[in-house]
Amino acid sequence: MGIGAFIIYFLLLMGIPLWAQAKVKKAYKKYSKVPNSSGMTGAEVAQRILHDNGIYDVAVEPVRGQLTDHYDPSKKVVRLSEGNYSQRTVAAQAIAAHEVGHAMQDAEDYAFLRFRSKLVPAATKGSNFAFLFIIAGMLLQSQGMLLAGIVFMSAAVLFQVVTLPVEFNASSRAMTQVVSTGIIKNNEEKETKKVLDAAALTYVAAALVAVLELVRFIAMYFMMDE
Fold this sequence. Notes:
Blueprint: H1 3-31, H2 42-52, E1 59-63, E2 70-72, E3 77-81, H3 82-86, H4 90-108, H5 111-140, H6 143-180, H7 188-223
Parallel strand pairs: 1-3
Antiparallel strand pairs: 2-3
Helix pairs in contact: 1-7, 2-4, 4-6, 4-7, 5-6, 6-7
């Protein structure tokens, strides 16, 4: 790879995630100031959708930080960042509905969520050991070590790729639920979708960067043969 190509590659590698994060923060900042028409907090939206779908064994709790919202399948808890938990905004209801989408996936034993959960141990090991083997392989010019690093990295990349349908499906469920339950009204459907789409970009960016890195190291492996 020439110096020019490497610089472009490096800029893409750094720029794509930063661009995605900027989009998320911009959308969140904008719509966290827009009151929702239902007057419901994020916590109330989450509880409403859970109960409307017959899910009563999932708790809704606040968690510190901004955009730290997540669903914990091991403890059956939807955790909403403190702002989204208590705010009555378009952003809060969109994010709450998205996280409940994951709880619905869990309740239905959604295939991709189950598969992603099984990948966690391998993906964790892959993230921890991949670059150790790759760096060792590059320094020692060892194809074997480089290949081991690629195998470890592949597990982590697969996790990122499988995350995409899980997140897209959760957002799709979120839109369906907030519309069908009448939580959103007027032009809120468009605004809610903008929040969800911006959040989805972060997962797309992460997967794209992971795949680019994997492809680069695979190419490097074959170049060692030449």
